[in-house]
Amino acid sequence: MRITFPHMGNICIPLRSLFENMGLEVISPPVCTKRTLELGVAHSPEFACLPLKINIGNFIEALEKGADTIIMAGGIGPCRFGYYGEVQKEILKDLGFDFEMIILEPPQGHFFKLLQKIKLITNHNTIKDIVSAVRIAWKKALLLDKLDLESSKIRPIEKIRGQTDKIYRDILLRINDINDKDEIDDLETIISDTLYDIPTNGQTPLKIGIVGEIYTVLEPFVNLNIEKQLGELGVEVSRNIYITDWVQENLLPSLLKPDKHKDILRLAQPYIKCFVGGHGQETVAQIINFANKGFDGVIHLLPFTCMPEIVAKSAIPRVSQKHSIPVMTVILDEHSAETGFKTRLEAFIDMIYHKKEVGDFAKMHSGN
User: Fold this and answer.
1) What is the mean pLDDT of residues 225-243?
2) What is the mean pLDDT of residues 125-129?
């Protein structure tokens, strides 16, 4: 069995670790490229959302490299993600590929049921073996989130452009390669020490939150490297979701879920009162959360035709006005281009600076 899975940001690193530590051969999906996109677009329904198209490209490239088993997540609720696995399987079968697809449905809070499903992939592993593999993968996921969080703070204020990204790539390779628990623990300290040794200009950057559909938020190829672009424009970025957040919110039993997540979701009640699929309700809640934390603005990312995020988008003008926070919605599809995207980011940032200057002037004037 040579397994593969979708490429979504850095999540492939803990997934590879998880399956390899259970004795499986892993064919990691290649990093998303223009070829990945072209393959997906050529063989997917025209009005399917962008993540499905990219996944198809991922799987074709991995199958070409020798994978024979695809691990795919399932979904619940009105979001079309719940159909992805079956649709992708039919497309790939029609293309003549010989493979098995294992769809892991959300456990809806019953974590050990998920472990049982994972055990079906490899019968020779005990629950103890699986738990050990999960622990190492979890530690790597925590490190990856820490790396993203720390990098986003340093990138906008580094004196020499590119230093943060160079260190980021080096540490990413180390996280991918190590498999010893003690080495993983040591690397946590190294991340902070190395990044905070980068010379900075001492300025206070703008703070912008990123919200939206999980794939477009986590996959740099799809979101046109928005975090890097904003960092180079002097903006500190914080996402509404990281790898470990998604695991805690979707895989843990209800009693173990963080209270902060439940409290944040309640913020959306005046605008979206119920679950609408995907991260639609959470998008609205997190915009309010970022406003409450004093962020200067929010960027909302969604793939074209994404129903949950379209529902969220309809509520955003009221949220933006009520909580006095600028929000820019960016709809992404296969035609999105980095050049035009950067222009929009620059205009949004200029507008925020202007808004702050007007606000500071008004406060100074009222003080007289």
Assistant:
1) 94
2) 79
How far is 146 from 188, CA to CA, in rounded Å?
8
Q: Where are the alpha helices (DSSP H) in 197-323?
A: 214-218, 226-232, 243-250, 259-266, 280-292, 307-322
Q: What is the DSSP string of 109-128?
A: T-HHHHHHHHHHH-TT--HH
Which range of residues forms the domain containing residue 189? Answer: 131-202
pTM: 0.91
**Of 49-58, 92-101, 161-170, 255-264, minimum mean pLDDT range:** 255-264
Strands (E) located in the chain:
2-4, 25-26, 69-73, 100-104, 206-212, 235-239, 297-303, 327-332
Q: Are residues 231 and 242 in the same domain?
A: yes
By three-state DSSP, how is residue 301 classified?
strand
Q: Which of 202, 231, 260 is the last residue of a domain?
A: 202
Distance, CA of 217 to chain centre: 4
Q: 102 and 39 in one domain?
A: yes
**Mean pLDDT of the region 50-66:** 96
Sign (positive or negative) of CA dihedral 247, 249, 254, 257: positive
Which residue, 312, 155, 297, 127, is CA-closest to 225? Answer: 155
Question: Which contiguous run of DSSP H or E holds residue 364?
Answer: helix 338-367
Residue 126 has pLDDT above 90, yes or no: no
d(CA 169, CA 188): 15
List the structure tokens of 228.
Answer: 């890097």
Hey, which residues does 329 pair with through a beta bridge?
300
Which residue, 84, 102, 125, sits at the end of a domain?
A: 125
- CA triple 229-40-244, angle to 5 deg: 55
Same domain, yes or no, for 288 and 336?
Answer: yes
Q: Total structural domains in the chain? A: 3
Kindly state whether residues 29 and 82 are assigned to the same domain.
Answer: yes
Q: From the centroid of its chain, how far is CA 200?
A: 27
